[in-house]
Write a structure and sequence with these properties.
Length: about 70
Amino acid sequence: MTPEAKTQAIAAAAILFGAALVIYLMPTIVLWIGNYSPLLAFFVGALLVLGFFLIFWLRARYQRRK
């Protein structure tokens, strides 16, 4: 495995681990925010889910430039 491939694999694993942690904690976060505003809880939940895809989209754009 080349050093570049190893770095990419570590970065992808870190992103997936972080996303899994956020998705695991998302119901608790959304319910806590929902006590104050259900609309805000909806937007926070949507932002957390879309953030997962946004990170990979940004990473793909970065990789294409290199």
